[in-house]
Protein 1
Amino acid sequence: MIHRSYEEFQKFDNMLHSRWVFDDISDVVLPEDHNVETLHEYLKVAATHESILKSTELSDFLGINWSGSDLKFMESLTEFMKVVIPTLYRSPEFPPEPPVFVNELDTITCEETPFEVYVYLEAFRARGHLDEYLKFFNDFLNTYPDFSEGDVAPPGHTVVIPPHFDQTYVHFLPGGYLNGHTVRMSYLGKSKFNFLHEDLIREYLTKYHGNSQPKRILDIGTGPGFSAFVLAEMFPEAEVIAVDLAAPYIRMARQWQTLRNITNIQFYQANGEDMSFLESGTFDLINYAYVLHEMPAENCRRMVNEMYRLLGSGGVMNGFEVPYVADPVERFFYIESNTWGHHWDDEGEKGPEPYIEEYELGAELTNTLEQVGFVDVQQIEYTYFESIFLATKK
């Protein structure tokens, strides 16, 4: 079933009468006295025309014949071009039917819907009308449960939210990660970002760390917990601490942990720049995925310093992260395409990754890792969108 407003009926009718030049559809007349019965009759008349019945316009209007499951988003640069260039991939001209979730458990267990794929796709095509898109997006997000109940900070520890985290938001998320209504949308990132796929995370953690036997593991910026769950399953004898600055995401991760019956993880809300509730030099492996490029350079450097403090001698850092682009020309275009030409604290429309300029020109991750004392620093390219960073504490 699909629900359509009269304004959407008007848009559909205008499409028909402006595009159907080789078929007489003069009998397809949108009723001015509109109600369910008259609009149903209008669609019946439209469907008597085979050219309309078989059209993508009618399929889009009825919310059928499109799921978005063929979109691979950030799997490769080629696939991403389909997302950002409409001529390479046709999206529906009407949004599919929005899902309705009545409780938090549903947001964890239900499969992604075509509407949610559509919303994600349209974000990357919203340049020039971003405010309009964000209103549409936010109206939908507010129908999601918000994971607002429960203190998830470490006992006796105060979590300080840095100003940028509640000022400029990544991935077009209204209110950012602190808005609990965004939790499911970020959780659905597992179908879009390579290193949110648990199978791929497991493959590469096994490749680089499978022969190690860490006793204590830290997962920073855990979000819904993708990496933390993989680490806990790979190293069942290890203690895994997983932290994220956004409390709603930790609440969701704890619920998912219960569903998965994984007992060797502790999820906490914490700022990766200040994990003073954790003792120095007590971790064998620290992991993060897509974290350091989502903040100003100064905050990034503080987080790297904190990782170094927490690792024991011989401990290893593993980062699934946006690449540091060494070539200045390539770096310029990488920054422009992600920021839409605006610095993170400027006015104006900002792209999906507003802090990329800070990351590429300020943090310069490989250099920062070496400056704080890490050795054997490696950046291993995976795709245009991510590299694997490895570093060891002496």
Protein 2
Amino acid sequence: PDCVRWVNVVGDNAAFILRLAQHFHLHPLVIEDILSSSERAKVQSIGEDALFVLIPSFHLEDGAGAGVPSNPATPLMTFQSPTTLSTRQRRRTFDEGGGEDITRSTLRIKSQPTAFVLLNNVLLCFHKSQSSATEECLKRILNQSSKLRLSDTHFLMYSLLDLEIDRIFPVIQTFKNHLETAQRTIDMYQAAEQVVRTLSIIWRQFNLLIYWLRPLESTVSSLKDRIQREDMQTQLGDLQDHVVTSVAQCESLQTWARSLRQDYSDQQQHLITHQQNQMNTVLYILTIVTTIFIPLQFLAGVYGMNFEHMPELKWKYGYLVFWIVIVTVATCVVLWFRWLKFFDYVSLGKEQVPIRLHPPPEHVLTRKVSFPQFKPSRDGVPMVL
């Protein structure tokens, strides 16, 4: 085209937006949607060869945006390797609520509407605040050989939409990094209550993301149907694929967060059961010892009475006979307990092994996530169903 005009408005100055809308003869309902801050994604025709597109723009709130790593593989939280912790240290770490408090990070998504009005060789953009997509488009336009510099307003709007939608993926990657660290913390038995709070926050944030992305998916699909240009179908199809992929990732990660919460709950329940079993074992051992000494205490009580006429006290070998009787009675009681297999329960109580749950992280970015199911075997070692 000979001339392409791009008007980029940053802020919510209602008076300026109204004057600009009157200049381009925009419908009052379109002006209302532009000024609104709670509209969901939509696309509508506002005249011949004119479109109005409204999409949400996502980013993490101030304080959490810094948590998006430059390298997506870099974890956001640190943890101690299990090889550097002794059993006592792990137990103390768990009892004291060890592990970094990942709720200190601001894990909340902020969404603001971004509006596009596509007219004849004119593109109006309305942002509530400065957008990195705008800056990136300006860099491409300044490049003499860029396709964006040589294209029309349709391709310019597609480029802005693509950059805005691609901002979702760093947000999703941030939550994925937190989930991976929470997974490692749970596997190391260092998870505390703040991990559960973080998982709840992440689960709610993915609910919010899916709430905004569902209309965006239908909006991009409708936009593809409205723009029937062959040179734009491929780009709009790629844009639609990005939205579908982000929705699938959100659903998978939401399932993973729910699974981690259940794993933590099962782990806590198993640890409580394990502690109760250990307490029962101690009480069982003390009961057996007490039972063995009951007849011995009876004999000692009888011969400890201060009666004058007790002929056994004046025997020459009375003391030796007393000890022989005591040892014989104790031995008989122990053999009787052994015959009844009472000591087998004590050995079973010492062989209990905690169950470790491992949802596979490599499946979290698929639409359907399937985790292996575990059951404890007879010897306490987990077995895969």
